[in-house]
Amino acid sequence: ETFSRDFPSQLFPLHDVYIAAGVKVSDSVTGRLSGGVVLLVRKEFSPLVKHVTVEYDNIVVVKLSKDMLGSVTDIMLLGVYLPPANSVYYKDTEIENGVFLVEQCILDIQEQFSDVSFLLCGDLNARTGDRFPCGDSLPDDFVDMEPSNMCSVTDSVRTSKDCVINAFGTYLLSVCEQFDLVILNGVLSGDCSGDYLYRRF
């Protein structure tokens, strides 16, 4: 979806609204904004959520307090939209792969915050098939999770109906390995079938 700075946040009075507005793309046939991300956070969680400013298009970052989720560290949630590889968005840039932007954003955050974990979500246009970033099985700390949260603890297999791996997906797998991230789709209960993560109409 495309979002602008004129996003009607008044329609969501119970939420704090964080926006990475769509950008004007040269050579766009329609001339409209492209991309953008909106993140809604319920106001009762406001004391535990802090917006983190980043200098990247189509990325919204908030820091979730460890007290909110009972985690060991605070969690940086990155809401991301990456235009697909053939988008005119990349035409006037030196960026060959959009996942590079996510990698740089994480590196920038690590310079500001020394002890945080990362949760990456959104539309990255990255197809990773059924591959794990670090080989063919889950890391040990995931195997030790509560069994009711896992699809198959014994097999340590990630399921995916999408068997394609594209260039963005290959880069994303390397970024996951670099920052010790795990792809949760097709691993955690609620998505044991590894369903498609997009719909084309």
Protein architecture, described:
By secondary structure, this protein is of the alpha+beta class. Helix content is 17%, strand content 21%. It has 4 helices and 8 strands; from the N terminus they run E-E-E-E-E-E-H-E-H-E-H-H. The chain has helices at residues 66-69, 99-112, 140-143, 167-178; strands spanning 15-20, 23-24, 33-34, 37-42, 49-52, 59-64, 74-81, 116-123. Strands 5-6-7-8 form a 4-stranded mixed β-sheet. A two-stranded antiparallel ribbon has the order 1-4. The longest helix is centred in the middle third of the chain and has 14 residues, at 99-112. The protein is globular and about 40 Å long. This is Endonuclease/exonuclease/phosphatase domain-containing protein. InterPro entries: Endo/exonu/phosph_ase_sf.
List keywords for this structure.
single chain; 201 residues; alpha+beta; two-stranded antiparallel ribbon; 4 helices; 17% helix; Endonuclease/exonuclease/phosphatase domain-containing protein
Q: Which parts are unreliable, with pLDDT below 50 for 5 consecutive residues or more?
A: none
Q: What gap, in angstroms, lies between the N and C termini?
A: 13 Å
Number of helices: 4
Quaternary status: single chain
Shape: globular
Radius of gyration, CA atoms, in whole angstroms: 18 Å
Class of secondary structure makeup: alpha+beta
Strand content: 15-25%
Helix-strand pattern: EEEEEEHEHEHH
Could you give the order of strands across the largest sheet?
A: 5-6-7-8
Number of strands: 8
Approximately how much helix is present in the residues?
10-25%
Largest sheet: 4 strands, mixed
Average pLDDT rating: 83
